Amino acid sequence: MITDEPLVSIVTPVYNGQKYLSECIESVLAQTYANWEYAIVNNCSTDKTLEIAGAYVKRDKRIRVHSYDEFVSVMESYNRALRIISPSSKYCKIVDADDWIESDCLTQMVRVAETYPTAAIVGSYQRCGGKVLGEGLPSNVEFLSGREVSRLSLVSLGFPKTLDAFGNQTSVLYRSDVIRKNDPFFPHLFPYADTTACYKYLQHHDFGFVHSAVSTRRVHDDTVSSKVADKYGIGLLGSLGHIIDYGPLLVEENELEELKARFLRKYYKIMGASLLKLNWEREVWLFQVSRMQELGYPLSFWKLIGGAAEEVTEELHDPRMAFRKFFRALERRVGK
Predict the structure, then answer these.
(1) Contact 92, 148 (CB under 8 A)
(2) Is beta strand 8-14 parallel, antiparallel or unpaired with respect to 131-133?
(3) Among 58, 97, 102, 336, which is most buried by a count of CB atoms within 10 Å?
């Protein structure tokens, strides 16, 4: 195909994705943007994933399948997929196997990327469970310096409502040369490695944004990694790690100390609420204790009690709702 459109490498890492993979692939095939190649990267699936992917390979020569015999973790699977993007691609789009993209997704994201050549990452809104994620940037702001959007995102972490412009893998477009120069592209194996990657690469590159929901993130019971991350509070710990690692690069010293204090208050309030909900799983709290120790902020019992007290104070403004929450938590606990 002769086209002036830059080549986009699309990758879908997948493990046992037979339930949703067809819908994901169909959303790629429906793109109004034509110049793409698509690699479905199989991580030792034991269901009909390979059979489904193979059927699509026969339908469109732009699709290929890479299958591996060695099972790896989620983030390792992403990194493995990114290593096989075309050397001639200008952009890369990850589409998770249980998500899908709108027909104009590539058209809109490439337009922004081409308009702003220094943007290494282009974000967008995303639908998820009836909500729209990624809101926060003014509607007329399509481009920001990487350091500025990183600073805005970081500073927001201490407040109840955060700036979520970085989204997740399915909601962003990456510039391929940045991927090729950094292996592994996702710098660690925690579930928030995609956000860490944004902070890392936006120190030297800029950021574009599409003010449209061009993808949908599916919420379902099979999303094991999300369940584990929520259960263990991994996202909270990731945010604290980002403040520690990138705060000194992005904000003034006095502002950084205020941010840390504000975030730790938020952390203890959330963890205190977890106590009140009778979420006492031993391994969860051991993980929190261990990880907070590693981050240099040992878990404080008294601050945890203080956070719980703050949560109680807020709940007492609506005592009946507070009691309902308590008894629901008690029922779940007894049920276990």
Answers:
(1) no
(2) unpaired
(3) 97
- Rounded to an integer, what distance in angstroms lies between the CA atom of residue 52 and that of residue 37? 18
Pairing of strands 131-133, 206-217: unpaired
pLDDT digits (tens, 9 = 90+) for 81-109: 999 999 999 999 999 999 999 999 999 99
Q: Band the pLDDT of 280: cuts 50, 70, 90.
A: low
In angstroms, what CA-CA distances link 166 with 53, 83, 141, 144, 224? 29, 22, 14, 12, 22
Matching residue, tokens 């399509």: 142
Distance CA 204, CA 193 (A): 18
Structure tokens at 262: 């504000």
With 0-12 / 13-18 / 19 or more C-beta atoms within 10 angstroms meaning exposed / middle / buried, residue 252 is: exposed
Look at the chain and report how many structural domains it folds into. 2
3: in domain: no
Angle at 17 between CA 61 and CA 42, to 5 degrees: 55
Return the minimum-mean-pLDDT range out of 74-88, 110-124, 176-190, 307-321.
307-321
Task: Report how far Cα 9 is from the mean position of its chain's Cα atoms.
Answer: 19
Residues 118 and 241 occupy one common structural domain: no
The three-class DSSP label of residue 125 is: strand
Nearest of 271, 277, 291, 266 to residue 162 by alpha carbon: 266
The reply to whether 206 and 305 lie within a common domain is: no
Per-residue pLDDT band for 312 (boundaries 50, 70, 90) equals confident
CATH number at residue 186: 3.90.550.10
Helices 193-201 and 234-250: angle between axes, nearest 10 degrees = 10
Which among 177, 169, 159 is positioned nearest to 258, based on CA atoms? Answer: 159
Q: Which two tokens stand for residue 144?
A: 């920001």
Is-contact 197 92, C-beta < 8 A?
no
Degrees, nearest 5: CA angle 335-311-224? 45
Q: What is the pLDDT of residues 168-203, one digit of tens each?
A: 999 999 999 999 999 999 999 999 999 999 999 999
Encoded tokens for 158: 């201490």
